Amino acid sequence: MDYELMMNGNVKIGQKAPDFHAITTFGEISLDDYKGKWLVLFSHPGDFTPVCTTEMIAFTRAHTYFKQLNTALLGLSVDSNPSHLAWMYDIYRRTGVKVSFPIIADRNGEIARKYGMISNDISNTETVRNVFIIDDNGVVRTILVYPMNVGRFIPEIIRIIQALQMADCMNSSTAANWMPNQPVIQSIPKTFEQLQERNEQIEENRNGISWYLSFKEPDRKCINSNQEC
User: Is-catalytic flag, 52?
Assistant: First the structure.
């Protein structure tokens, strides 16, 4: 682990996700347990709080869609494991929803600080609503940060994973407002000859506006591995 990460919890997109070992509502886990899977690691400010309760229910109801994308869910707060368990039981007793993923009890804040989940300008103890999307190689691919009083939009988190997986599979990019099964952006030509070929292709197929912005349909194998939710 580099010095900057150790001191500031300055996790960046493109770096290996910091390792951890933790107590959760599903028993002891480590980051290595998720090898070969994508992971959504998200923090919440506290148990028995209104916004967080709606998020636990929403993540649980969407869990099937995450599983279809080979993606696991993992929550975290600085509350104790007994507090987590009591909260999960209260949600189940009052709504019938059984939270289907583990929640880390990060009592000393070690993991939260390692990932930069605590914003000292807001609170020295509570975690803000961070989301880290970690790919199946253990690399951080997306970081989202929400304030304490605004709940997360779960369909957008799913869409980001779908976009990342499609872009990886197609060696391409996705446009603004991209949705599953829509065309992807082709890689920019690297030579003048390729540029001319791309413009000819656009003229023939009407699939772009210029050599630097053109589209192609996703391959069937990529669609099959990137199921629409």
Answer: yes
